[in-house]
Design a protein that fits this description.
globular; 3-stranded antiparallel sheet
Length: 421
């Protein structure tokens, strides 16, 4: 028999969170998690209660198929038939979690942490519920080996309905199994999350006519497998993993991959313009020696501070991205959103530092500067000087393609590295 507990009055909040994809869990399945606390403290034990609710609705696949038939009809110049698809073929399953917890939060937490999703779960009820849903899904995935997505802040919402209610605690006679009853749910509303990830709408800006030339330029670099394209692609993927997909570990590993591709791509271009023979420097690019070439080769070629200790763009990247990636990949560590954001930030700061040092050496490496920074970038930095204007006018037009030449040099270097010569 259960009796009322003599705990001070508190408030409950319950959120209705539809997961990014359905889970194979029975409708009404309940999960109750209590958190450790000091039993001597005069406070209510914190908990999260999850109720999984299944429902059917229009599926994204159904909507995509409908759009496909509409495009086919438009291409054929025919009106789309309303009966092209059976409504039963368009339904999909959705899993919504009713997540209930104590409405305990720290005042001005968002102002202290900067963004709502960075507030620690201990002092934010919504983040507490999202974390417990993620923990449950990770455990469910491992137990059943189910290839499902882990719900994160960026993969749910962006509109989350909620309700408030009075907390009526109950305890079993033996003192175990604290639970709760709610006699009445009161006011509610809808909370807007700090993202606008709606997969039915494009995430980027609309393409403009003037973008055609830039796209063609990057297409050429893509065809070559140019690292100055590939680093940017990995960096965009890292941002996508964080901001669109909520995959924090992936964001860290992709940030580090982007930085390594950037550093090695830039270094190979610098050696190419320095007229180093590929086989002469191939050993520098051996796997596992990135830190060594960052400290020595870049300092020699570009000057500046390339120390991995202390502060600065290079040291910050080494400690907050490069070493964090090692923990994620080799230690199975799951980084926080804030750690993933920092990894992206320090990678971008490292890239900016590389470009700044390169511009500072524009008279030594004018070809690499024009390939990477270009006239537009130099003008933005107020570095479009008499030397560079003359170089573009007198030298560039009579030389073979720098992209092709540097690509061929890089291929020879890697061939020499793999052959062990």
């Amino acid at each position: 028999m259960l009796e009322r507990d003599s705990i001070p009055a508190a408030r409950l909040v319950r959120f209705f969170i539809t997961l990014p994809e359905p889970l194979a869990i029975p409708d009404g399945y309940t999960w109750h998690k209590k958190f450790d606390h000091d039993p001597s403290a005069e406070s209510i034990q914190q908990f999260v209660n999850l109720v999984f609710m299944q429902s059917d609705g229009m599926s994204r696949q159904g909507g995509a198929l409908s759009a496909t038939f509409e495009a086919l009809s438009r291409a054929k110049g025919e009106p789309q038939k309303d009966d092209t698809l059976d409504a039963a073929d368009l339904t999909g399953q959705y899993t919504t979690v009713m997540a209930t917890t104590l409405d305990v939060k720290a005042p001005d937490a968002e102002a202290q942490w900067g963004r709502a999703q960075d507030v620690p779960p201990e002092i934010d009820p919504f983040n507490r519920c999202v974390e417990e849903i993620a923990r449950f899904t990770r455990s469910y995935r491992a137990a059943l080996e189910a290839p499902c997505l882990i719900p994160t802040y960026e993969k749910i919402g962006p509109f989350i309905p909620y309700q408030m209610g009075d907390f009526i605690p109950v305890k079993s006679e033996d003192g175990e199994g604290t639970g709760f009853k709610v006699s009445n749910w009161g006011e509610g509303g809808s909370m807007l999350l700090d993202h606008l990830n709606m997969s039915d709408f494009p995430a980027g800006d609309q393409i403009k006519p003037e973008d055609a030339g830039r796209i063609d330029f990057y297409m050429n670099m893509l065809t070559q497998g140019n690292p100055l394209f590939l680093w940017k692609e990995r960096f965009v993927e890292a941002r996508t993993a964080l901001y669109r997909e909520g995959k924090y570990g992936t964001a860290v590993t992709l940030s580090n991959t982007a930085s390594e591709v950037l550093l090695d791509g830039l270094l190979s271009a610098l050696y190419w313009e320095s007229k180093k023979r590929p086989e002469e420097v191939a050993g520098i690019f051996a796997e596992g020696r990135l830190a060594r070439r960052v400290k020595s080769s870049f300092s020699e070629l570009l000057g500046g501070n390339w120390s991995l200790d202390g502060t600065g763009p290079v040291a910050n990247w080494f400690h907050k991205c490069y070493r964090l990636r090692h923990r994620v990949v080799h230690g199975g560590y799951s980084p926080t959103r804030l750690e993933a954001q920092t990894a992206i930030d320090v990678t971008l700061a490292l890239a900016d530092y590389c470009w700044d040092r390169l511009v500072a050496k524009k008279k030594k490496f004018p070809r690499v500067v024009l390939m990477v920074i270009a006239e537009e970038g130099l003008r933005k930095r107020d570095k479009w000087c008499h030397f560079m204007r003359n170089f573009v006018r007198d030298v560039a037009p009579v030389e073979p393609s720098w992209l092709d030449a540097s690509d061929a040099w890089r291929s020879e270097m890697y061939d020499a590295l793999l052959s062990g010569d």
